[in-house]
Design a protein that fits this description.
Elements (H helix, E strand, L loop, with lengths): L1 H14 L6 E10 L6 E10 L3 E6 L12 E3 L18 H6 L9 E2 L7 E2 L5 E3 L2 E7 L7 E10 L5 E12 L2 E12 L6 E6 L3 H10 L1
Antiparallel strand pairs: 1-2, 1-12, 2-9, 3-8, 3-10, 4-8, 4-10, 5-9, 6-8, 7-8, 10-11
Length: 206
């Protein structure tokens, strides 16, 4: 079932010529409770088409050659070495006396989405994951929570593919950018997804 979901996604990218969606990536931040010198950032996606698949892992390799995911210094909570990439173990965090607002993680539970095994990683400089939702989630989606040190000299870079549903077809849209640590008020920018399908379609029309 896992591989059928993403096989269908891949097949749709070469079967139909459609235009890419417009994806807006925005983020807001507030001081991290109980953790001086850090801001907890919520990363939000807005699309002009319903969203369903999210690839912020690529091949899953946590190496410098894979730009997908969130890259840069970030705070992680791993009670008893339990992974909290998808927020599944927040009860373990609170049970160990931790605050979930202090943990960098994707804002989904792996039990409620289809996750490809082996393609999720987290560390003090990396957050990677790939998943699909059973049905479109609409045009607004909180994708991740990042706990970042408050500095003026560094930032977190990110890259991923957001699949939107257009005329019943899943279309991959590339997003990338940089998140500054200093975000006392809302900040955002617009990225137009460059889907493989859109590029193929435009070439055929020329």
């Amino acid at each position: 079932m896992v591989f059928k979901t993403f096989a269908a996604l891949a097949a749709s990218l070469v079967a139909v010529s459609v235009h890419a969606a417009t994806i807006t990536v925005s983020y807001t931040g507030a001081p991290t409770p109980g953790l001086a010198g850090f801001n907890t950032i919520t990363v939000h996606l807005h699309s002009n088409q319903p969203m369903q698949g999210f690839d912020f892992a690529g091949d899953g390799s946590p190496s410098g050659t894979n730009s997908k995911g969130f890259h840069g210094p970030m705070h992680q909570l791993n009670p008893s070495s339990i992974s909290t990439i998808y927020g599944d173990n927040n009860s373990a965090i609170t049970g160990a006396g931790g605050n979930t607002k202090q943990d960098s993680q994707f804002l989904v539970n792996s039990g409620s989405v289809t996750v490809l095994p082996g393609l999720s990683h987290e560390s003090s400089t990396l957050l990677q994951g790939i998943w699909a939702v059973a049905a479109p989630v609409g045009t607004d989606y909180d994708i991740a929570q990042l706990v970042l040190p408050v500095t003026s000299t560094a930032a977190v870079s990110y890259a991923g593919t957001v699949s939107t549903v257009q005329n019943g077809v899943l279309v991959g849209n590339q997003v990338s950018g940089t998140i500054n640590y200093l975000v006392p008020e809302p900040a955002g920018f617009v990225l137009v997804g460059l889907s493989v399908v859109g590029l193929v379609g435009s070439r055929r029309r020329k």
